[in-house]
Amino acid sequence: MSLADRLRGLEDRERRLLGILVAMVVGAVVLLPPVALYALVHSRRSEVEEIRAAIQAIEDERETVERAKAGKGAIEQRYARPAPPLAAFLASLASEAGVEIPESQDRQAVPHGKRFEERTTKITLRKVGLLKLVKFLEKIEQAGHPVRVSQFDIRKRGSEPDSYDVDLVVSAFDRKAEPKAAAKSARDGGAAPRGSAEPDGDEEKDEEKDEEEKE
User: Fold this and answer.
1) Does pTM top 0.70 for this prediction?
2) 42 and 27 fall within a common domain
3) Which domain holds residue 107?
4) CA distances in angstroms from 22 to 32, 36, 93, 154, 156, listed in the order given
5) Shared domain check, 212 and 137
6) Overall average pLDDT of the 109-118 stretch
């Protein structure tokens, strides 16, 4: 019996079911490629988004690293210019700001860790106006040396207008020579001094900690 005879021998209900089955198969054949293509495109798009997010994260981290490098470079540049003797240095800045320093007292240097040393000078200003005082403090801040005002005490002089007595303690931070550089200099000179050694990891950590404390 041929296929046509078999189809003609089917009942109406069986023909409807067969038609539905054929329609489903044809629909599946027609729709399968677009669905598969859409799934592939969606998968690729997700991968692209992940790659884009990874690239953005790398760019963000790069900016953070660059800022850290710039900050470290600024610190190194600042410590590369040690402050001169504080008494004469402050007297020069005060003269530029129109301020007189009647009293000044240098204090003994204090070590900070293994890499830094703090020099301090206490100065006293008499009958100084606020504008001149501000100019003097600005000159200290903008001098380009690792110097800061570590103590500040200001008192109004009775009923005198714009007249104040001020006590300042100014600190200068000196960075000692690199142990590695000192050892190299000794080797270049012919013999290393006794007790000299390359800095270890603990010394590098101490250096970073001391720099943070100074800032």
Assistant:
1) no
2) yes
3) 86-176
4) 15, 21, 98, 98, 103
5) no
6) 86
